[in-house]
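Internal tracking record. Fields below are filled automatically when a chain is submitted to the structure queue. Please do not edit lines marked as system-generated. If the sequence contains nonstandard residues, flag them in the REMARKS field before resubmitting.
Queue: standard
Priority: normal
Entity type: single polypeptide chain
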Amino acid sequence: MEELQTRTLDQAAFQRVWQRVMPEPRPDCPFTVDPPPMPAPVPPPAPAVPAMAPMGQAPLPVCLGEASAAELPALERLLDGVEEGAQTYQALARRWRREELLPALAREKRQQAKRLSAARFLIAGERYASPAAPRMSNEGLALRLRGRFQAEQRMALQFFAAANAASDPCLIELYRELARGCQDSAQALRAWMEKR
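SYSTEM-GENERATED OUTPUT FOLLOWS
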């Protein structure tokens, strides 16, 4: 930019001096005073968000539509696992009412189930029927939460594997978010164990 300004100033100074030396143009003079060349225009940057496909071209990929129907079996398996976790945490929260962690984990799992259920509905157009509630054993709370800790780790791995196998970009993003949620739940259970 500075070089262009310097050339423009030099050209203007040259024209002023030349006008004093040669007030009238002469045909036999080898020098001419031409305006400086203009720099080429800079093209505008490409848009960050892709525009809709022009007529006659393939449409852009659609998230959570009928094209993602092949993803339903994996999504339903994950949804069953999340629903089981939500029901287990809810049952544990009813049995051990003084533990504040249990209702929070139950709410978290319910929220994950709602997100997966909504994705399933957008793909298939039908509501999800949750599986029957798991039977509660007479194990103590620590043993039950140890089982849930292991289940949360397994679910995180399953979500990451499903994200790697999925082709729907919305499902990939959802699975990765839910995998991190399972990791957070496992960490909360570990912190609870460490305080006991």
